[in-house]
From TrEMBL:
Its EC number is 2.7.7.13. SUPFAM superfamilies: Nucleotide-diphospho-sugar transferases, RmlC-like cupins. Keywords: GTP-binding, Isomerase, Nucleotide-binding, Nucleotidyltransferase, Transferase. This is mannose-1-phosphate guanylyltransferase. It comes from Acidiphilium rubrum.
Length: 480
């Protein structure tokens, strides 16, 4: 009888969780465009940085679990990052990390249940790539033997914003890996100081490494309600362009629970790989100041900002020039529609500001003046009684939906590129410095037939100018 050779798939599937909102990084990070889509520590966005760590030899194309409202942003940023072949799973609503990871495990298991998954958030910073890859190699070997590994970050300060892991006995046969003695919730300052001193406790990075088979087995054992609900949502999934939509009814039945609570703190197969990889969850402006490049006086400046006679400050401008004079240990962040000023020690509490803005029904709590769409973006420039002025940018080859409005007329002025406009039964090519009027109730569409972005100024006039005054007859991107 001939020998049979079993070839084990040695590649690792990166699973990137991109469902967070990052409210502590307001006013830059907001629900409609959260922190993972922003370049916070380099020229690339946090999502692109994360995807870039898991490309090349040894890695399969990533699986990204994202909010369905962000699907086109995710797809475009992955394309720019060169993440070829990415599979994007769309959550119909947020249900925390356990249901998201379970859905990703079902997807990976369809191809190979014994393939190793490296699960990570889309918005963490890591400065030592070589140390990361070394830790990942240790974790992957143990994962193939049925363990669920996490990375324990060597603490550098008595941080109260992170959970901790207590190191247990060495994991036999796997140098550098240890059993987990216990998980510790975010401690108070006194407890954090003692944990830092004893050398056996590590920050919980929230990254996990395990095979799809192991994850699904442990979820079915310790969180069967998660497994059942996500299985229903996964089995009823449907393709949508380049995305995979989980069934909303099934997914909504899943408990809102983290992977830590669902299985990591219950399983007998948990292990930790201590690692010094320059990790930060960049969960606050103080954390971003920590990893940012600073001047001789400890100041970090991003964007159009000027700083004088100040120490230990973080100053960032996404809009107007921002000047800081004679301050110490403050954070100043400016966007087009909001300004945050706080002491560095208070940045963990920025979410309180967001909560108050939400209670006051302020749009600045969740959305920017620039709103991204699959065809490009628009931003409001001026808004008054019965009129609004917007700048609209349409990507080459993209088109808006065929639509009409009941309460407003529109006047389009092209300032760069060319627009092919449908207006009822007519078609017009509108070039730079030309304009077209769209009367109330007409059925219209705009597309960019050119090779450069189309930029136009839209002047709306009417009794109601809300974004919900739209009837779509046809849409390339499947919106209703």
């Amino acid at each position: 009888m001939a020998d049979e050779t079993v070839t084990r798939n040695e590649t690792i599937v990166p699973v990137i969780l991109s469902g967070g909102t990052g409210t502590r990084l307001w006013p830059v990070s907001r629900k409609a465009y959260p922190k993972q889509f922003w370049p916070l520590i380099s020229a690339r966005t946090m999502l692109q940085e994360t995807a870039g760590r898991a490309t090349g030899s040894g890695f399969a194309p990533p699986v990204v679990v994202a909010n369905e409202e962000h699907r086109f942003i995710v797809a475009e940023q992955l394309r720019e990052a060169g993440a070829v072949g990415a599979r994007i799973l769309l959550e119909p609503m947020g249900r925390n990390s356990a249901p998201a990871i379970t859905a990703a495990a079902f997807l990976v298991a369809e191809v190979d249940p014994d393939q190793v998954m490296w699960i990570m958030a889309a918005d963490a910073a890591i400065s030592d790539g070589d140390a990361l890859q070394a830790a990942l190699a240790i974790a992957a070997r143990a994962a193939r033997e049925g363990f669920i590994l996490t990375f324990g970050m060597h603490p550098t300060a008595p941080e109260t914003g992170y959970g901790y892991i207590e190191q247990g006995a060495a994991l036999a046969g796997h140098d550098g890996a240890f059993r987990i003695a216990r998980f510790i919730e975010k401690p108070d300052a006194v407890t954090a100081t003692s944990l830092l001193a004893d050398g056996r406790h590590f920050w919980n990075s929230g990254m996990f490494v395990a095979t799809a088979r192991t994850l699904l087995s442990e979820i079915e054992l310790h969180a069967p309600e998660v497994a059942r609900a996500v299985r229903v949502a996964f089995d009823a999934r449907r393709p949508d362009l380049d995305f995979i939509r989980l069934d909303a009814a099934g997914f909504s039945a899943a408990p809102d629970i983290s992977i830590d609570y669902a299985i990591a703190e219950k399983t007998d197969h948990a292990a930790v790989v201590p690692a010094a990889i320059g990790w930060s969850d960049v969960g606050s402006w103080a954390a971003i100041w920590e990893v940012a490049e600073k001047d001789a006086r400890g100041n970090a400046v991003m964007g159009d900002a000027v700083i004088e006679e100040s120490d230990g400050c973080y100053v960032r401008s996404e809009g107007a020039v921002t000047a800081v004079l004679g301050l110490k240990d403050v954070v100043v962040v400016t966007t087009n529609d909001a300004v945050l000023v706080t002491h560095r020690s208070q940045t963990q509490n920025v979410k309180r500001v967001v909560e108050r803005l939400k209670r006051n029904k302020r749009p600045e709590a969740e959305a920017h003046t620039r709103v991204y769409r699959p065809w490009g973006f628009y931003e409001s420039l001026i808004e008054g009684d019965r009129f609004q002025v917007k700048r609209i940018v349409v990507l080459p080859g993209a088109k808006l939906s065929l639509q009409k409005h009941f309460h407003r007329a529109e006047h389009w002025v092209v300032v760069a590129g060319s627009a092919l406009v449908t207006r009822d039964s007519e078609t017009h090519l509108v070039r730079e410095n030309e304009s077209l009027y769209l009367p109330l109730g007409c059925i219209h569409r705009m597309e960019n037939p050119g090779k450069i972005p189309l930029t136009l100024i839209e002047v709306q006039s009417g009794a109601y100018l809300g974004e919900d005054d739209i009837v779509r007859y046809e849409d390339t991107y499947g919106r209703s």
